[in-house]
Amino acid sequence: MSDAMAQANAPVPTKQPTSESVGMSYLETPSRKFVTIYLPLIAFLIVLLFPFYWMAITSVKPNQELISRAGNPFWVIAPTLAHFDKLLFHTSYPAWMWNTVLVSVVATFFSLACSVFAAYAIERLRFSGAKQVGLSIFLAYLVPPSILFIPLAAIVYQLGIFDTRWALILTYPTFLIPFATWLLMGYFRSIPFELEECALIDGANRWQILTKIVLPLAVPGLISAGIFAFTLSWNEFIYALTFISSSEVKTVPVGVVTELVQGDVYDWGPLMAGALLGSLPVAFIYSFFVEYYVSGLTGSVKE
Amino acid sequence: MTFLERLQNNRNALGLLFMLPATVLLLLFLTYPLGLGFWLGFTDAKVGRAGEWIGLENYQFLWGDAVTRLALFNTLFYTVVASVIKFLLGLWLALLLNRNIRFKTFFRAVILLPYIVPTALSAIAFWWIYDAQFSIISWLLVKMGLIDNYIDFLGNPWNARLSVIAANVWRGVPFVAITLLAGLQTISPSYYEASAIDGASRWQQFRHVTLPLLTPIIAVVMTFSVLFTFTDFQLIYVITRGGPLNATHLMATLSFQRAISGGALGEGAAISIAMVPFLLAAIMFSYFGLQRRAWQQGGQDK
Fold it and tell me: Where in the sequence is the domain holding B101, given as residue range(s)?
């Protein structure tokens, strides 16, 4: 089990078994391959990416082009930055952005620190009951936020952190810690015991083993868990919607949905500009760490 | 021996210390609210007023409430239809990506984009795509001569249900595809070579090699997918807010509306708690059903 895990988690797999080594694939002509593989693949790609294109093109279209049915809606004749100007200088958007960054970064680092200790204790200290604790961590991972937000709102209110960033920083770890601990447990499992035993014989204590041997070896796992946790907190919606009511502490997804939509006339330009700007940071970070993100995603659903 | 040294040699004490931050946080913000949710479901709590025990009154009321029944139907319909489509499209996409193709890394990276950007924000894009007056889909269909009038995507109950399902599928397919792809890559090519020598067709290879070996990971991936779909909130809240005429209200959005917007904490909590049996059933079904079947297939050596 741990072998399969380590294999699947290793970033940048060098050579993968492909079905091209399958016996009869040489019978496939290039044109047949185009129809059965590339054509569906391109169709998938167009459908999956179209909403982003639509977001981008709408955000630079002047209003009169947006509401005209004449002409080609897929293109823009006179691109404008007016929507971005309105968004950045006439709404609280920059404040929402700052809140989202702050909450995501703090919650991610905090959860990661808690998870490292928990995963190490479960996998390597093997205290009595470690197995059951590991299982309950997995079960905690399956508890969806949509059945927790009502009682959590009551708790957040009682603690006096309602409508503050602390409400989010302290509640996001409820879904980040179970996930990150589960992922890191898999990584720690793949580190050979012998390394730790050698260190113990050489007189290292547990703290030194954790910081000087286990953590450096688990860096890919830490990056995976970190990237994944960051995007999860950036994208979080229901807690931020429920626990925050003042405009200046809202996060981007909640701010865009609750404050840019007013009345019956929707300002599609600024809305799309807001959606685009709110999506870019995660997409940008993701582009640098694709392999880590994928290994985090696939590792999180493995046992 | 100092206290610190003794602590270091006791794995239970050290384990407890290491587990402390995570445990405190999860107990306070996960276990306690879960219990509190159960309790609130049996009370008539309102925002700013602690409730009193009223037994099963909330559940009795909700059982007779037409909107709640409709929300339950919507949730089941949404979950079943979206999950089936996500599974079929996701498996297809995973099989395509598992072939020897050019720009594989690029394809894989780009395909995951719908899953990583904030759902609330991509939902706004869908809202705009489904706009009654300026929908790009309607525009395209009209220009192609397939329809005469713009489609009222979100104004008609069944159109609205199918529209939000389409948005959910768009967001969920990448997750299913990429995780199933990881499963496909662990299948050794030698099985395919052996079956090809025995004269198996592509379909037979898929049916008798790929599918049985993939079943365990399908079980896990689909459990997660069903779980996320059943408890979905963001897409509905942003695109339709439950409308038209509650036709797209899910349990999660209805509980938000009753508890947070309406202030009836007890009633909202009861709706959320009513989701728990369904979630447990989904987990049990996929875990025991599919996992055991996979294990038996290996064991029986069919």
Answer: 53-300
CB pairs under 8 A between A and B: 301
Q: Do B78 and B155 share a structural domain?
A: yes
Tally of domains in chain B: 2
Burial level of B78, CB count in 10 A (0-12/13-18/19+)? Answer: buried
> Is CATH 1.10.3720.10 what the domain over A87-300 is classified as, yes or no?
yes
CA angle A124–A172–A235, rounded 5-degree value: 115
Distance CA A244, CA A254 (A): 9
Residues of A within 8 A of B139 (CB-CB) are: 69, 73
* Residue A108, min C-alpha distance to chain B (Å): 13
What average pLDDT does range B264-291 have in this prediction?
Answer: 85
Q: Report the CATH number that the domain containing residue B251 is assigned in CATH.
A: 1.10.3720.10
A89-132 pLDDT, tens per residue?
Answer: 988 899 999 999 999 999 999 999 999 999 999 988 888 888 88
Cα A182–Cα A188–Cα A189 angle in degrees, nearest 5: 90
Residues 57-96 of B with CB under 8 A from A: 89, 92-93, 96
B41 in any annotated domain:
no
* Residue B48 covered by a domain: no
- Bridge partners of residue B43, in order along the sequence: B53
Residue B124 neighbours by CB under 8 Å, 6+ apart: A256, A257, A271, A272, A274, A275, B238
